[in-house]
Amino acid sequence: MADPGYGPYAVRDEIRAAQAALWRHIAEPGTWWAGAQRVAIARAARDADGCGFCAERKQALSPGAMRGEHAGDASLPANVIEVIHRVRTDPARLSRAWFDAVKANGLEAGPYVEIIGLVAMLSGVDWFARSLGLELPLLPEPRPGAPSRYTPASARDHGAWVPLIAPEDAGGSEADLYPAGAIVPNIIRALSLVPSEVRVLHQMAAAHYLDLDRLPDPTAHRALDRMQMELVAARVSALNQCFY
Questions:
Q1: Which of 29, 57, 106, 205 is within CB 3.0–4.6 Å of 145 for a Cys-Cys bond?
Q2: Are 4 and 23 in contact (CB under 8 A)?
Q3: Structural domains counted in the chain
Q4: 142 in a domain, yes or no?
Q5: Whole-structure pTM over 0.90, yes or no?
């Protein structure tokens, strides 16, 4: 299986391992999508970067007022392509009304959350490559098998768009989702309806940023000190119009 490459750059082993694990994760059968569908989701996310309709809608005052067709892989249902392209190209303007329309068109919460996890984590690897001036790594070959269709019993309505697992409810098969006593950001809880996405996100976040249990420590650092890390994170978030 192809793993992301780094050309002449010395990239930390931890990052290499996390990105290779994500590539395996994309290729494998998931909770709601088979391996071939998950790779197609990843391919559609990259198609969104060159989608003319997405570019026009990004410039529109109201994305909901735009009508058109997405470019790229048509092997997935139109409502799935819509979610992938919006999350990849214009996530700052997603709305509850948009999400309700997605559900009304037949995409349930579990499959939706799995798409969000795949597209978000793939985007991290893609922008990592672009920041180094490298070609995007080839997507992996899908692996056979059926999705598990597992729904955690502890996932409940906590006022978000989708059911979540609260830290105090994470037991049994989900006991490993959140480190004991750690601050658990909503971005982590947001994927908890599909626990396998949370586990891979933990590895990606720990390699590229910090472990959850180190978040409250102002002295935690990498090559940059913590203030520098947060300055970069805040600037990138502002450019991306992040809700936080």
A1: 29
A2: yes
A3: 1
A4: yes
A5: yes
